[in-house]
């Protein structure tokens, strides 16, 4: 995957975001956590518009982790209801803007209405080219690696594949993001410095960016600061800084 990243581009091709801090945002205002999640949807709309405008090709947002089922039942239910209503409200507009919506994660755990809405949003926007929006819901990076491994094992058992034919390319084709490039910029809002089982394989060479804004406060200047920070980094992919500088001067990738 790292070979598919553009080492010299100032704009990340693939941005992944852990949208953290909705609950604390609400608590600071003496409001229920669900109020923070509602406010978080506004920040999601802002982020999609901003990164599409910036020329980002893939935006992957962590909406619900496989571990988030451990939250109180009423918070989980209100999040599920919010997913359905947000998709209902926003799919047409995203479609008009040329955004392709795709869900990654184990959707078998969702109730029927949510599953149907996910499929409808995906179908409606399937051919859009401007930017792909991957929504990670009931997603875990370890789950993704495991389900890819299981699929490859099945192919070996069926005689379609030999174990020694399994390489990075074949493995990536079985991940939940088969046609996505590697993550270039990995953002986490909300002040924590951890990856929380998000895109583990896909972020192998991502630039990590942690900021303290709570997700509902993540506004355009904060997003621009993340892009500026990314543009200031030298991505070496194992090479020396001198090698990268020579290639940049020669205009090679
Ligand atoms: C992230 O915000 C949104 C989800 C996990 C769905 P949190 O709900 O984790 O907010 P904090 O971390 O409690 O502030
Ligand atoms: C990660 O946030 C998942 C999402 C943003 C959906 P959490 O707030 O659940 O992460 P931890 O548990 O604090 O690491
Ligand atoms: Mg959190």
Quick summary:
By secondary structure, the chain is α/β, with parallel strands linked by helices. It is built from eight helices and six strands. The protein has a single domain, classed as 3-Layer(aba) Sandwich (Undecaprenyl pyrophosphate synthetase).
Commentary on this structure:
This protein has 253 residues and is of the alpha/beta class. It has a single domain, classed as Undecaprenyl pyrophosphate synthetase (3-Layer(aba) Sandwich). Helices cover 45% and strands 14% of the residues. It is built from eight helices and six strands. It has helices at 22-28, 33-54, 73-96, 112-125, 141-157, 168-174, 220-231, 241-250; strands at 14-18, 58-65, 99-104, 131-139, 185-188, 207-210. A six-stranded parallel sheet has the order 3-4-2-1-5-6, sandwiched between helices. Helix 3 packs parallel to helix 4. The longest helix has 24 residues, at 73-96. It starts with 13 loop residues before the first strand and ends with a helix. Bound molecules: 3-methylbut-3-enyl trihydrogen diphosphate (2 copies) and magnesium ion. Magnesium ion is lined by residues 20, 190.
Give helix and strand order, one letter per element, not per position: EHHEHEHEHHEEHH
Q: CATH topology, which one?
A: Undecaprenyl pyrophosphate synthetase
- Strand portion: 5-15%
Determine and state the CATH class.
Alpha Beta
Number of helices: 8
Helix fraction bin: 40-55%
What ligands does this structure carry? 3-methylbut-3-enyl trihydrogen diphosphate, magnesium ion
Shape: globular
Which structural class do the helices and strands define? alpha/beta
Characterize the biggest β-sheet: 6 strands, parallel
The average pLDDT score comes to 95
How many beta-strand elements?
Answer: 6
Q: Give the terminus-to-terminus CA distance.
A: 15 Å
The stretches of 5 or more residues where confidence is low (pLDDT under 50) are none
CATH-assigned homologous superfamily: Decaprenyl diphosphate synthase-like
Based on CA atoms alone, the radius of gyration comes out at 19 Å
Number of domains: 1
């Amino acid at each position: 995957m790292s070979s598919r990243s553009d080492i010299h581009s100032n704009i990340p091709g693939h941005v992944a975001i852990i949208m953290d801090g909705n609950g604390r945002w609400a608590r600071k205002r003496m409001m229920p956590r669900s109020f923070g999640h509602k406010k978080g949807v506004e920040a999601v709309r802002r982020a999609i518009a901003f990164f599409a405008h910036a020329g980002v090709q893939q935006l992957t947002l962590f909406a619900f982790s496989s571990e988030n089922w451990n939250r109180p039942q009423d918070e989980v239910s209100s999040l599920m209801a919010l997913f359905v209503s947000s998709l209902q409200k926003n799919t047409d507009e995203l479609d008009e803007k040329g955004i392709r919506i795709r869900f990654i994660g184990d959707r078998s755990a969702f109730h029927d209405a949510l599953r149907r809405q996910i499929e409808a949003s995906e179908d409606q926007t399937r051919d859009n080219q401007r930017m792909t929006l991957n929504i990670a819901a009931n997603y875990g990076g370890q789950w993704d690696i495991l389900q890819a491994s299981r699929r490859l094992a099945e192919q070996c058992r069926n005689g379609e594949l030999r174990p020694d034919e399994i390489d990075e390319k074949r493995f990536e084709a079985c991940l939940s993001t088969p046609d996505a490039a590697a993550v270039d910029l990995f953002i986490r809002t909300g002040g924590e410095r951890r990856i929380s089982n998000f895109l583990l394989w896909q972020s192998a060479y991502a630039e990590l960016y942690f900021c303290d804004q709570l997700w509902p406060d993540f506004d355009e200047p904060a997003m621009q600061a993340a892009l500026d920070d990314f543009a200031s980094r030298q991505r070496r992919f194992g090479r020396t800084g001198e090698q990268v500088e020579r290639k940049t001067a020669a205009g090679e990738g």
